[in-house]
Fold:
Amino acid sequence: MDTVFLVAGVVVALGVAVFLTDRVLLAMESRGWIYWRKTKGLSSIGVDLIQEGDPGAQAIKRAMEQERVRKNVRPAEDPPFQVDLDAGAVHIRRTGHDGKES
Structure:
């Protein structure tokens, strides 16, 4: 009879331990620390490793990086020419060999 209560106690203790572990892992997932039950996915390291062998993914990644840089970097000066379609004229700014306007 004591053995039955001992086994039942161990089973209940294991059930409680599994339940509490699950709740702790869900709390960690809600903070974004880990993926547990509700969200499955690859880490950024895993995605990078998969994309290394795919030339199409590399081209897309490179294009996205270039677009991000293009949007964040403003040109330091105006372009060297201006086109006025109404007047039918093109204005070209002359620069010397050292890059200074002449």
